[in-house]
Design a protein that fits this description.
The chain is an all-alpha fold and 110 residues long. The chain is built from 5 helices and no strands. 11% of the residues are buried.
């Protein structure tokens, strides 16, 4: 498979997992801690650099507790997903390529 095909498959797998969560898969607390820091320190500035507005993050402990309880919680991509941009596959590909939701090696390595 080409690198683009692999990236597309990984992205589709992540989107599927987010849209159709399987409750028995629990991300360990340490991984959630790392994911939160990555999203706040890397994803938020990246999205803002692309010109997108991002909701301010909630407190890390609240976010982690919600994640552990399979509850919806803060998502740096939320405003983009709710905007007309979400209908533009090319733009969404650009966003996710430049600002990946997960750090390299995160999913499904935990």
């Amino acid at each position: 498979y080409s690198d683009d095909e692999v990236v597309d498959f990984e992205r589709a797998s992540i989107i599927c997992a987010l849209e159709y969560p399987v409750s028995f898969i629990k991300i360990p607390r340490q991984a959630l801690d790392e994911l939160y820091d990555y999203q706040v320190d890397t994803v938020v500035p990246c999205l803002e650099d692309l010109g997108y507005e991002v909701d301010p993050p909630i407190a890390k402990q609240l976010w982690m507790d919600a994640q552990m309880a399979d509850q919806d919680t803060w998502d740096p991509f939320a405003l983009i997903k709710e905007s007309p941009v979400a209908e533009d596959n090319d733009e969404m590909d650009k966003i996710y390529t430049q600002c990946p939701e997960y750090p390299e090696g995160f999913w499904p390595s935990y």
